[in-house]
Amino acid sequence: MRRASLALVLGGAVAASAAVRVSIMGGYAAAMEWSSAHDFGISAAAELDLTNFLAVGARLTHSSVPIPAGASSGTELSQGRLRITPVALFLQFRWPGAGRLKPYLAAGGGYSFNSHVLAAEAAAAWDLVGFSVEEKVENTTVVFAGAGFDLAVGPRLFFNVHAQIIVAPLSGTWTLTDTVTGEKATGSMSGSNGLNSLVAGIGLKYQF
Questions:
Q1: What is the CATH number of the domain that holds 63?
Q2: Residue 53 — φ and ψ, nearest 5°?
Q3: Which is more confident, 192 or 125?
Q4: Confidence class of residue 191 from pLDDT cuts 50, 70 and 90?
Q5: Which residues contact 117 (CB under 8 A, 6 or more apart)?
Q6: Nearest Cα to 77, choosing from 188, 196, 197?
């Protein structure tokens, strides 16, 4: 009897608060391995309330940051543009209450699609000495932790501020080709924090 009552109470709590929210955010993105590698980032998310204070969701983030010349610190990445697109599932703790301001914490993990495009200046410098170079950054698993708040600006519309740290190792390969003989030299890239990044911004959230 007690178990049945508890199940009914929990089921009622979930049903009463089962709101769905979608959001989109744009702002600042930075690769933490390089102090000057920062540019634009965007993030979109969907959340489903489990209780008044706990939600589950999915988040897609995309950041594109320039890697400056001479900035390699053991990661082997040359001057160019690094793109990181993690897709993650998360749990979100929201401070309960009926006020307009809703702070929250979130954490989760997933998979990131990564790429690096060599800058034209770097490619030209290698070409002058008779070589072409290719650098491939592998996709990888990620974890993230974030925090933010929603501020109600209407019955279903919220102003959202969010910041998150994405943690991912760097894994990849480089290939150096002699443009005269065609001979190739290859190697691997690795770094424990080469793809760690920070994304922060503002956006809008809508609750269904």
A1: 2.40.160.20
A2: -125, -5
A3: 125
A4: low
A5: 80, 81, 83
A6: 188
Q: Quick one: 163 exposed, middle or buried, by C-beta within 10 A (0-12, 13-18, 19+)?
A: middle
For residue 6, is it within any domain? no
Distance between CA atoms of residues 169 and 206, nearest Å: 34
β-bridge partners, 85: 113
Mean confidence (pLDDT) of the chain: 85
What tens digit of pLDDT does each residue of 100-152 get? Answer: 899 999 999 999 999 999 888 888 888 888 888 888 899 999 999 999 999 99
pLDDT of the residue at 73: 46
Residue 8 domain-assigned (yes or no):
no
Bridge-partner residues for 170, per DSSP? 191
Q: Is residue 77 part of a domain?
A: yes
Q: Which residue bears the tokens 């920070």?
A: 198
**Looking at 60-64, 85-89, 112-116, 167-171, which range is the least confident one?**
167-171
Q: What are the helix and strand counts (H, E) for the chain?
A: 2, 11
Q: Are 103 and 149 in contact (CB under 8 A)?
A: yes
Cβ neighbours, 10 Å, residue 4 = 8
Residues 158, 39: contact at Cβ < 8 Å? Answer: no
Give how many domains the chain has, as a whole number. Answer: 1
